[in-house]
Write a structure and sequence with these properties.
Number of domains: 2
Strand order of the largest sheet: 4-5-7-6
Oligomer: single chain
Helix content: 25-40%
Number of strands: 12
Largest sheet: 4 strands, mixed
Distance between the termini: 81 Å
């Protein structure tokens, strides 16, 4: 019987892990799994763990439960981790899960920096604990059916990165407004995005998301921003009969503050 030859593993190979991460950096990669390290170096899992510990702050494990590591180059030591844009794609491929950079993090890719956000925001398909790596925090949000959402691959990016399109980003900012600082913060982030919103893209996003309440809030905000053409697209998509929705949570019901056009209960005098 012919058996496939199994390469012998060297239990030690001093310096193999250090050489491995240097090779990764030369190829432009800042992330790897322990399985990859073992496969490429011939180290045993135990020897790999030992050598990774000896590397100290040159490598960073994403989580005690995950055998996935980041390479922290000298230029990133002060922060404690490389920028998420350099390794998120590799991380989610390792997890075998869909993702896209979202919300204010995605808006920042399109030039919307109304607020300095220290958190990297990612949408995926099931709950996941936030990662805190050095001074960085990556926060995950859940969205059903997000595998079908078209994304942009940023041009001139150093590493592959999936980013929500401007129209999806705008819609997500409304849906997750209460988790990112409120509807006012969402509106501040949307405003610089507006020149990049297309009517075709907005129609596609409305159909794909199919959230009437969120669309009412979005249409209301677009009208307050004097984006009448985009607001009209939203109104045309909405059903003829609308239920009253709150612009944000915690709003007290007051009939005098209900916008009769959008059936949106305003939260403050900021949105008259």
């Amino acid at each position: 019987m012919n058996r496939k030859a199994v390469p012998k593993q060297s239990p030690r190979r001093i310096g193999a892990a250090a050489a491995f991460i240097e090779d990764k950096l030369e190829l432009g990669h800042v992330a790897f799994s322990k399985d990859e390290l073992v496969r490429e170096t011939g180290l045993t899992p135990t020897a790999a763990n030992f050598q990774l510990r000896r590397l100290g702050d040159r490598v960073l494990q994403t989580s005690a439960r995950q055998a996935f590591y980041l390479i922290v180059g000298p230029e990133h030591r002060i922060v404690g981790a490389p920028p998420p844009a350099l390794w998120l794609d590799d991380y989610f491929k390792w997890l075998e899960r869909p993702y896209y950079l979202a919300l204010q993090s995605a808006a920042g890719c399109y030039g919307s920096n109304s607020q300095a956000v220290q958190i990297t925001q990612v949408i995926t398909n099931r709950p996941w604990r936030a990662l805190r790596l050095g001074r960085l925090e990556i926060r995950f949000y859940v969205k059903q059916g997000m595998e079908q959402i078209p994304v942009n691959e940023l041009e001139r990016a150093v590493a592959p990165l999936r980013v929500s399109k401007p129209e999806t980003t705008m819609f997500d900012l409304i849906v997750y407004a209460n988790q990112i600082g409120g509807i006012g913060r969402a509106a501040e982030t949307i405003a610089p995005l507006l020149p990049q919103i297309s009517i075709t893209g907005l129609k596609e996003a409305l159909k794909r998301e199919n959230r009437v309440g969120a669309a009412q809030r979005l249409g209301f905000l677009l009208e307050t921003m004097n984006e009448t053409k985009l607001a009209a697209v939203v109104m045309d998509w909405l059903p003829s009969t609308l239920k009253v929705v709150r612009l944000s949570t915690g709003t007290r019901m007051n009939k005098n503050r209900i916008d009769k056009h959008w059936k949106v209960l305003r939260t403050s005098e900021e949105f008259k």
